[in-house]
Amino acid sequence: MVANSLEALQQQPIVSPIAQNRLQQTWQLLDDQIRALEAELLTLLEQRFAQEMKLLQSIPGIGRKTAGMLLLFAGGFTRLDNYR
Q: Tell me: the pLDDT tens digits for 27-41?
């Protein structure tokens, strides 16, 4: 939501250079925070699901982020009744 608001403000023709600079700083700060949170989440997933991460990453095309997201959204595959 914040990113969309910032982008909309950047498209406005009456944005002063000071406001533009502030928007850029805010955008960079948010981007840095998102990257830090993603890295922390992946580290926690790797600690909690070390074996599952290793197995998922052995599949061609599945990297660290994809394996982490699969584990996150599938609940570590503990909620599945069977392999299908």
A: 899 999 999 999 999
